[in-house]
């Protein structure tokens, strides 16, 4: 697996992943175009065949805050370290930009993702009621302060 910058030509490849993983709450092509146009930091994880196995994005809000916009891993590539590698790369970029606080939202019913984030020092700080639409699922807001180290 290799990580590289998410470019416009990856959008068509990630849309079926979005549909599979997130159903009616999937991001549209326009949403990805907007993220790239805004200059946010996005990566793709490419498998040995050069296909997108996962992707992730980080929006840095100067002077010292960042939001993990998304992390997604193709179903057949899950549990192989792809999500962890993407998260580590986002956190490294946040550190490079002197971010003091990194935040994210995760569905309250997504225990595997919450466990991964907790291993990297993210702690629950709030709930966004009905955040995910149209399912009306709540989001757990998690925050990581700079210097938080991964642990098992």
From TrEMBL:
It is found in: Cytoplasm. The keyword Kinase does not apply. GO terms for cellular component: cytoplasm; ribosome. It catalyses: N-terminal L-alanyl-[ribosomal protein bS18] + acetyl-CoA = N-terminal N(alpha)-acetyl-L-alanyl-[ribosomal protein bS18] + CoA + H(+). GO terms for molecular function: protein-N-terminal-alanine acetyltransferase activity. It comes from the Bacteria. Its EC number is 2.3.1.266. Keywords: Cytoplasm, Ribonucleoprotein, Ribosomal protein, Transferase. Residues 1-147 form the N-acetyltransferase domain. Its main location: cytoplasm. InterPro entries: AcTrfase_RimI/Ard1 (IPR006464), Acyl_CoA_acyltransferase (IPR016181), GNAT_dom (IPR000182), MshD_Acetyltransferase (IPR050276). Belongs to the acetyltransferase family. RimI subfamily. Acetylates the N-terminal alanine of ribosomal protein bS18. PANTHER family: L-AMINO ACID N-ACETYLTRANSFERASE, N-ALPHA-ACETYLTRANSFERASE RIMI. This is [Ribosomal protein bS18]-alanine N-acetyltransferase. It comes from Micromonospora pattaloongensis. The lineage of its organism: Bacteria, Bacillati, Actinomycetota, Actinomycetes, Micromonosporales.
